[in-house]
Amino acid sequence: MKKWCLLFLILPNLIFSQINGVVVDENNKPLSYVNIWNKDLSAGATSNIEGKFLVEKATEKDTLVLSLAGYETRKLSVKDDQIIKLKKKEKQSNQVVENPENKKTLTIGKSIRQNLFFSPGNLPWIYAKYFKNDSSDTSISYLNKVEVFIRSNVANATFKLRFFKANLDGTPGEDLLIEPLVVHPVRDNRKNTINLLEYKIKMPETGVFVGIEWLLTENNRIKLTAFYKGEEAIADYRYAPDLVCNQVEESNAYRYVAGEWKKNNEFIKKTELDEKKPIIEPAINLILSN
Question: Fewest Cβ atoms nearer than 10 Å: which of 15, 162, 178, 279?
Answer without folding.
Answer: 15
